[in-house]
C-alpha cells in the first residue's frame, strides 16, 4: 500500500489543499481526507467545550463540598472557566445546542476529578449534576455548602 502525502507529511498536504481551494482546482482536492479533517475539527471543538465544562463543574463541586477551603482564587477560577466557555460559545455558536449533552458527559468526569482532588469518596457527590444548565453558566452562581 502506497503512503499518501496526507499520511507522510500532513503539513504539506494541508498547504496543498488550501492552495488548490484558493485556485479553484476542486477536482484535484483530496476530498475524502478533507471531509475527515473538517469532521475532526468539529469534534475537537465539542471536546474543548466538554473539557472546560468538566473543569468548571469540578470546581463547583469542590466549592459546595469543601466550604472551609473557599477563597478568592477559587472563585476566580470558576469565573475564568465561565468566561472561557462563554467565549467559546460566542466564537462557535453552533456548539450551543451541544451544551446539555456536554454537561452530562462533563459531570461524570467532574465528579471523579472532584473526588480525587478532595480525597472524598465519589459517593459524596451526587450521581447527577445538582446544577441546572442555567446555574452552571450563570456568572453569579456559586452553590451553597453541604
Major β-sheet profile:
none
Work out the strand percent.
under 5%
Task: Sum up the overall morphology in one term.
Answer: elongated
Give the integer mean of the pLDDT values.
Answer: 93
Span from first to last CA?
Answer: 61 Å
Strand pairing plus helix content: what structural class?
Answer: mainly alpha
Helix content: 55-70%
The DSSP helix count reads 6
Could you describe the 3D structure shown?
- With 146 residues, the protein is an all-alpha fold.
- It has a domain at 44-137.
- Helices cover 67% and strands 0% of the residues.
- The chain contains six helices and no strands.
- It has helices at residues 5-8, 10-23, 31-65, 72-91, 99-118, 133-137.
- The protein is elongated.
- The N and C termini lie far apart (61 Å).
Amino acid at each position: 500500500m502506497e503512503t499518501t502525502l496526507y499520511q507522510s507529511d500532513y503539513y504539506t498536504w494541508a498547504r496543498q489543499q488550501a492552495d488548490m481551494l484558493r485556485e479553484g482546482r476542486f477536482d484535484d482536492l483530496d476530498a475524502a481526507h478533507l471531509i475527515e479533517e473538517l469532521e475532526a475539527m468539529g469534534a475537537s471543538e465539542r471536546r474543548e467545550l466538554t473539557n472546560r465544562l468538566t473543569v468548571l463543574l469540578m470546581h463547583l463541586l469542590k466549592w459546595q463540598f469543601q466550604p472551609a477551603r473557599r477563597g478568592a482564587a477559587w472563585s476566580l477560577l470558576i469565573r475564568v472557566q465561565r468566561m472561557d466557555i462563554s467565549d467559546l460559545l460566542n466564537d462557535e455558536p453552533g456548539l450551543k445546542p451541544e451544551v446539555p449533552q456536554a454537561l452530562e458527559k462533563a459531570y461524570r468526569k467532574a465528579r471523579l476529578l472532584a473526588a480525587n482532588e478532595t480525597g472524598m469518596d465519589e459517593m459524596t457527590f451526587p450521581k447527577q449534576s445538582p446544577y441546572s444548565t442555567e446555574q452552571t453558566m450563570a456568572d453569579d452562581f456559586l452553590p451553597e455548602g453541604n
